């Protein structure tokens, strides 16, 4: 069906204009043939095909599943499983058993090959005891670590079978895209060649620096989507972005997932989509190895034929259970922004201008940060301390001028993994510093002189806490302490912006209190100033409190001056007028 539809679409687009006129004339001569042709055209239309795929995917689900998926797409709820230490321990044990005993060897070739690089593991197919005994070794292979396995358990909502398939598929994909070293250590930015990095920096695929309102990371594909480049490089960049989204021990992203926004704005020549059937199958196979759950796909396109065809191809490239997460948005750039904003996505951070140019500033800053962090030796507090001070050399050696650690503090974001792993800076993560943050969490409080952070969920909660404590009437000192306690109870962090391009996690209690104290004081001063402005702007009407405003027409109108001959006639004459202030008629007598 896929190849037939694409072939028919190409044939329809390549139809000669004269042939179209002839066909139109003949169809007008026979109503029955016209109706049949119209139905066939609807079946071959890319929009109809994509809508049919979406409808079939939704119809295959139960009402409850459709409702849950729809609510998660809108950011109303999250399908993540509530985790407990027992659930994690039992699930990992079942996952190992599933991989070693129920997954065919031909499906897990990369996984079997990876076990050969574990110093203490003598991996035998069909047994999982060797893997278990090696988990406490300091040189543990990263694919055998608890954190790595939890990635796929969370991505598949603790479905053991699907998690096992996703894990082995991921290793197969990174082995194909990055090479043998991807089985020995996590993928890095240094795995890209100089020419590949130049294409990476063009910004067709980016990981946005902020989350949506539900705490999900956003992967954006904009402009030409990189279709004009080699497909292997395109997926290489995509998998690096997916890995980077969860590489910082970011449990929130692992649980809540990511949102993919596809926003093409320029026509890509049809001949750049060579072997379209192969393109579809390859993308479908690669997506099976995703290390993170995709909650929604937002496909934003203008109303032009090519983009409808591209939309159909993308729908075909998704699995049946993923098609139901696909949302199509068609319209002008401004219309698309309003539509996407309704799903909780930060439109201001979409790396695309209204004229269709790609924004690359945030991407270049992020790549610079990744490059520095990945050159640090894993778990080196000295290296991370130097990173805070900007003393990381290009060679990755920490400067000798700084030799003290900043301190020790947990990540703090949904820290349920701490029960399954005693070490935050594990051997499989090259960027697990608890002090340098590339993307704030939903409960983090940000301090940066910028309008971009006003809508951050953590800052919204922070200002609500300030308003609540201000109404309680406590002093600034006591109120500030209570606010800090409330932030920490929600596993939030206080982050300050560094000019080098990242967030720094404040761990010193006195500095945190100082930040909160100043914010509380500024809030009181602004509120007091607003009250004074309101009082001063209404003070001229204080004499009218409880009474209606005096209208000019209700004022006493003095009669025109009379002539000398009329003075005697008008003497003691009574004049009447209506007093609108007291709603009654009044009178007075002339004295002349």
UniProtKB/TrEMBL annotation:
Domain DUF6824: 444-522
Compositional bias segments (type: Low complexity): 23-44
Cross-referenced InterPro entries: DUF6824 (IPR049227)
Protein name, UniProt field: DUF6824 domain-containing protein
Region (Disordered): 9-48, 552-571
UniProt superkingdom: Eukaryota
